[in-house]
Amino acid sequence: MATNTSRKSIFVRRLGRHHFAHLRAFSEGLDVQASAKRYLGIEHGHEAKTAHMQTVDAVRMVARRRGESAWRLIGLRITLSVATGAQPSLDDFIAEQNLDGWSEAEVAEMYLDAYPPDKKSQRREKLRARQLQLLKSLEGVAAETPLPSDLISGWFDDVTANKLISAGMVTMADLGTKIAVGGAWFGTLPAVGRTKATRIKNYFEMLLPQLVAPKTASFALATNHGLFAPVPPLESAQSLIVLPRPALPPLATLPTSMLSARSDQEAVESWIAARAGSMLTATAYRREAMRLLLWLQNECLGKTLSQMNVDDCGNYMAFLQAIPAKWISRVHAKPGAPGWAPFKGPLSRKSQAQAIVIIAALFAWLQSARYLPTNPWLLVNQKTGDDVSEKMLDTKALSEAAMQEILTFIEAQAPSPSRTRIRFILRFLESVGLRSAELINARLEDFRLEPEGWVMQVHGKGAKNRIAAVPGQAIEALQQYLALRGVGSLQSAPPQAPLLASTLDPMEPIGYQALYEHVRGWFYKAISASALPLNERLKLSGASTHWLRHTFGTRAIAREVPLDVIQAQMGHASIQTTTAIYGRAPIKRRVDELGKAFA
User: Which residue among 1, 24, 316, 543 is least crowded, i.e. fewest CB within 10 A of its CB?
Assistant: First the structure.
């Protein structure tokens, strides 16, 4: 029997021992859906029958090629007669009939008279035995053992394989490496959530258990005094990451210090309190400082910041470029909890550069405060260089087509406060270009109508104020949003009303996490349902609120808005920042001018 090529999905390309285990389980009476889920990694029940029939076809084909006359037995469920199982054993028959002392021949004759053989049952038993023996024989010659170098497409159904390959997992070893990292390893897989990822992981572990890294109970950090035990941070409610408490710096250096800190952790918190202008900045500062302190404790025999030298700086930069597996979290856990580690995965070149910039700023500040006698980072080349794979003209922005697809999806949904809010966010940020924090903190009193038109005062990055123009598209979106919130128009609404409000209370603002999840959730649903090309849907799988700010910049460049106007609107410190992010206008001028010269 040939494999039915009209089926939508291909589940069997290479035969493994798990396929024969499925057929045996089915033969023994296990439900086809339960068996396919257990042995074939099937996610949806309606796929079980297709996967089962493809397995049967593939094994039957092997049997026919080997000239096995009983190939039709493969895939059959041979049920045994209930009566066969109900008749007593010969010993029980002798006891029941009080036949002790009778000869074996006489007892056997009476037993056959009482329970004549069921020819159908005997035939079924023989067929079942022959079926199982045939499966065992075929398994020995046809079942392959998966290898790390095998292609994903050979062992996974074609739909799952295409998703894995599109995310860069081409071989079984690639997938094993991703799974071993743990956490949200499936984040780059399109339309794969935690449930589907668990099914893929379990199926992979059944195929290649040797590639699955052993699970560790916790990420214990060793110090000179034994295992690291986390301590509560000094600003408990505000500190998002727990820092270790290293040894105190020598007391001889403390009298000259301008800080009251008596440990590196306290010094770090003083720096954050003095220099971090926002909660997000404080989180980034604390994360990088914590990582350095843990590295000094575990990789440098418990050194403190004051003991760090030039060689240590170079070694730490090398460490960031190739983070060991034990430093990467396998599970999503809070600091100090079992399975936690300081890194979620390898760092990109940009993340490495940012980490070094933050650490260098920490040392410069601590030296200025006389907490540290020297700053070894001044003697180190801190440049990490550019990533060779970086596409310089790529931006995290929504194309015109993507924006239209998302808006079309939103308009097709049933009216709700959530739909009202996401529609406003898209249209407003696309034409104004605010940061997420600026959007959250804005109130209606920040808007005013000047002779030049509508503007709003923004309290932006670095605690700096600026005036942002509010074009017609943004004003129209805002007026509609306020009306649907029931607070009136921009001219009549309460001045203290937040620009962006809770869906439950029009006068209650929302936080950063709520905004992030709100936008991400709508993006995911809209992009999944869109007709966009696969490569664009994959790119947009990571889209968040910040992408709307880049969308404004990209759209403004495409519509030939001058760079200095974009710089002022977005609140960039210099026009070089604007040019670096949205550099198409200078490139277009360069191409045009050189084209004229060398036509």
Answer: 1
